[in-house]
Amino acid sequence: MENCLFCKIAAGIIPSSKVYEDERVLAFNDIDPQAPTHFLVIPKEHITGAGEINEENSSIVAYIFEVIAKIAKEQGIESYRVVTNYGVDTGQTVPHLHFHVLAGRDMTWPPG
Ligand code: 5GP
Ligand code: ZN
């Protein structure tokens, strides 16, 4: 989609520090990390966010969690948090579905 930051990162038009890539998804390090490990996993297909998941595109979400587990195993990350923000109240700043994967420090619950 035109003018979508993460579509441009997925297409390689804007560079990123890649963690994992295949034909359906890209994982890359967050530019402003909130934990020692903080990467984002996105579908290459433009989906605005969690509220736009439907029966046609939902399989990508299962696949993203499969990829997250694979990356974590490869990197020896045994404990991690997966977060997706949707809508202004949550602080979603990029309207392209993305899952934050955070690890490497103690994390509070509830998240605030
Ligand atoms: P949100 O606030 O929408 O849940 O998360 C967006 C995330 O994207 C933020 O954690 C922010 O640091 C990250 N981000 C924004 N712009 C860029 C960028 O150009 N490159 C990378 N790698 N991360 C970005
Ligand atoms: Zn997009």
Secondary structural class: alpha+beta
Rg over CA atoms, rounded to whole Å, is 14 Å
Give the low-confidence spans.
none
Mean pLDDT across the residues is: 97
In percent terms, what proportion of residues is strand?
15-25%
Number of helices: 2
Helix-strand sequence: HEEEHEE
End-to-end CA span: 32 Å
User: Which hetero compounds are present in the coordinates?
Assistant: guanosine-5'-monophosphate, zinc ion
Which overall shape is indicated by the principal axes computed on the Cα atoms?
globular
Helical fraction: 10-25%
Largest sheet: 5 strands, antiparallel
Question: How many strands appear in the DSSP assignment?
Answer: 5
- How do the strands of the widest beta sheet line up side by side? 1-2-3-5-4
